[in-house]
């Protein structure tokens, strides 16, 4: 596992010497390009903690898996409480321990990314004049900021009201080995200070140009700063940054999302994402990838018949029938035997977004997609399409969205409302929902707070399964209520806002290797909740 003090152990290569730095700066900046590409490839890395884990964890496929951990920890994505569910510990909230696999996974993922960014920043220094090096520096700064923005929300409560609470150690390109070996938890405010500085500096260096949407450009940097400003309640700045982030991007149309989608970075709404190809290790692995665990149409994975991902039935019931997004989840009629024993569910024709004319013939019998793949229960997600939109495709080379224009529109609307521009916020929200999701939509909220709640609802629906719901719950200081819905009874928790169990613990390995953090400095260990 990578710890925050492993400064001399860069994941993608080694430490760059002073002579190498000078050579790259003066002769061939392109030599740094591979390290910059590594910032993206690290986010779809296969089996990153295999050595520590002692095998292959089937959730070990990059950032998309972290997003599934976030969402499963909340109240919007029920799933089966079975051994096939590799996210069962988040569902049960049994993973909040210092020896837990998931906290190691988070720590390794984001501090690896920080190390790689720092290594680039040691070469592409603040005084570089080369155009390419300036871009590389901007990408590294924005990536480091994004990594800390994840870490600070994993290990501490939201910014407002917790500015002086301990967060995570800060490691930059200037941190020495001696400093890193005794590096205490920085405050939430200090981490956000670094995030904001990095993003502002990145914006000054970046342009809209890039080779692929898995690389950071100026739009991504503005989008990340919009997120940070939203968390800090810098409302006007959040609205301004969100507007700049979505320049040149348009939301998915109503027609686009009237069928399983969200699998291709070429979509007009995608500002940033994981770009996955058939040759990537996570695809070659077969089932260690996002579609395996999330796509209900894959011909090779856990999601269809073993560990489905569902929407909270109470949330689903709030979606109007005129909203195209209601078709992102499939209902089903119960089927019973002669003794009134439940045999399963008949999904046929129950979801308009599914192509029910698709058939697979096996031994002379035609099966539709639900019957062939063994869909288990109602409220099953059909939001995420299979690779190349081919039902039963065994190749799981789908891209994963990390930032979409729709998110920026919702940030802008919330920020406008909370800054006092309620009419402007309603206009922003209604224009989006009416034109792209529900032509009958009218926003009835009349106050800033009511609008914020309505936008939270829109975020819960629009961004479902993309890693936002848990952090939104934390940011808005909402309770976690899984009761009265389609959660298994043993995990149907009802927990107050900012319950201590929401925070993960800093990994034991970090405490053992960093004298600046003792066991007493860690987040408190609390009992697993009971339903």
UniProtKB/TrEMBL annotation:
InterPro entries referenced in this protein's UniProt entry, alphabetically: SusD-like_N, SusD_RagB_dom, TPR-like_helical_dom_sf
Location in the cell: Cell outer membrane
Residues annotated as domain SusD-like N-terminal: 84-227
Residues covered by region (Disordered): 1-27
Gene Ontology CC entries for this record: cell outer membrane
Positions of the RagB/SusD domain: 317-518
Pfam families: SusD-like_3, SusD_RagB
Record keywords, A-Z: Cell outer membrane, Membrane, Signal
Protein name (record): RagB/SusD family nutrient uptake outer membrane protein
Protein's organism: Phocaeicola sartorii
């Amino acid at each position: 596992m990578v710890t925050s003090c492993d400064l001399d152990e860069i994941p993608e290569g080694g430490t760059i010497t002073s002579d190498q730095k000078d050579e790259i700066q003066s002769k061939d900046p392109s030599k740094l390009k591979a390290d910059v590409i590594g910032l993206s490839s690290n986010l779809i890395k296969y089996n990153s903690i295999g050595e520590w884990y002692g095998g292959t964890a089937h959730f070990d496929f990059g950032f998309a898996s972290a997003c599934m951990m976030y969402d499963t920890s909340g109240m919007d994505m029920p799933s089966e409480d079975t051994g096939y569910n590799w996210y069962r510990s988040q569902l049960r909230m049994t993973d909040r321990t210092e020896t837990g696999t998931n906290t190691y996974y988070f720590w390794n993922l984001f501090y690896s990314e920080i190390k790689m960014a720092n290594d680039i920043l040691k070469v592409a220094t603040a005084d570089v004049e080369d155009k390419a090096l300036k871009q590389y520096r901007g990408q590294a700064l924005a990536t480091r900021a994004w990594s800390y923005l994840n870490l600070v929300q994993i290990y501490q409560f939201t910014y407002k009201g917790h500015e002086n609470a301990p967060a995570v150690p800060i490691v930059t390109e200037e941190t020495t080995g001696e400093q890193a070996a005794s590096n205490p938890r920085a405050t939430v405010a200090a981490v956000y200070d670094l995030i904001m500085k990095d993003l502002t500096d990145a914006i000054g260096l970046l342009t809209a140009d890039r080779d692929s949407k898995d690389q950071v450009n100026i739009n991504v940097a503005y989008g990340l700063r919009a997120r940070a400003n939203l968390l800090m309640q810098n409302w006007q700045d959040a609205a301004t940054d969100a507007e700049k982030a979505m320049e040149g991007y348009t939301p998915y149309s109503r027609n686009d999302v009237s069928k399983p989608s969200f699998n291709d970075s070429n979509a007009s709404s995608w500002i940033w994402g994981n770009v996955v190809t058939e040759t990537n290790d996570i695809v070659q692995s077969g089932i260690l990838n996002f579609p395996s665990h999330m796509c209900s149409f894959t011909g090779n994975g856990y999601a269809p018949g073993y560990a489905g991902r569902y929407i909270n039935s109470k949330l689903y019931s709030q979606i109007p029938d005129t909203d195209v997004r209601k078709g992102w989840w499939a209902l089903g009629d119960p089927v019973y035997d002669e003794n009134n024993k439940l045999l399963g569910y008949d999904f046929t024709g129950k979801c308009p977004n599914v192509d029910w004319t698709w058939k697979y013939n096996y031994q002379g019998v035609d099966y539709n997609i639900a019957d062939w793949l063994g869909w288990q229960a109602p409220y099953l997600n059909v939001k995420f399409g299979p690779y190349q939109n081919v039902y039963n495709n065994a190749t799981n080379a789908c891209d994963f969205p990390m930032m979409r224009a729709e998110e920026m529109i919702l940030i802008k609307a919330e920020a406008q409302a909370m800054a006092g521009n309620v009419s402007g916020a309603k206009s922003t929200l209604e224009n989006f929902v009416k034109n792209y999701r529900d032509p009958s939509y009218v926003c009835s909220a009349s106050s800033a707070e009511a609008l914020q709640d309505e936008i939270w609802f829109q975020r819960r629906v629009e961004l479902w399964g993309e890693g936002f719901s848990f952090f939104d719950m934390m940011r808005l200081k909402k309770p976690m209520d899984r009761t009265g819905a389609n959660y298994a009874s043993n995990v149907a928790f009802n927990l107050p806002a900012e319950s201590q169990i929401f925070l993960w613990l800093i990994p034991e390995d970090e405490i053992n290797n960093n004298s600046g953090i003792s066991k007493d400095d860690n987040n408190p260990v609390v009992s697993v909740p009971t339903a």
